[in-house]
Amino acid sequence: MSTKETKITHIFLKTAHGAPMEPVGHATAITGEGLQNDVSRGRTRRQVLIVDTQTIKEFGLSPGTLRENIILEGQGLSGAQRGTIIKLGSAKKLEVTLDCAPCDYLDDIKTGLQDDIEGKRGTLCRVLDGGVISVGDRAIISN
What we know:
By secondary structure, the protein is mostly beta strands. 10% of the residues lie in helices and 40% in strands. The chain is built from 3 helices and 11 strands; from the N terminus they run βββββαβββααβββ. The protein has helices spanning 53-58, 105-109, 113-116, and strands at residues 3-13, 22-24, 26-30, 34-35, 48-52, 70-72, 85-88, 92-99, 123-129, 131-134, 138-142. It has a 7-stranded mixed β-barrel with strand order 1-6-5-9-8-7-11.
């Protein structure tokens, strides 16, 4: 089993479909549902989208542009195996469910981004153990 430690640099909520992402200092993860006040709450496998700072920088994007909920410092989770556990803060746990497939929306941001970002779009997770997640919390990734 390998373990990697990083930290949360940004948290965003999607308060409505198509609405701008709302940056927050903390969010409440609800076990089995997702993030409180986020439109993806209640989905089965697509509850929380995590992206890394390296991807944001590589593609010259602003945080929140990819409609991600959490940004982790450094290299990300893209390609992480399903079932990988991400421990956030003191006890909150997320489980990787799948990589996020690039969609047409990305080409509206930047021409060719949908194809260019393939394999780096971010990682979708579900909430195993809920609680408050805050910017600056450490993240421990175990697979």
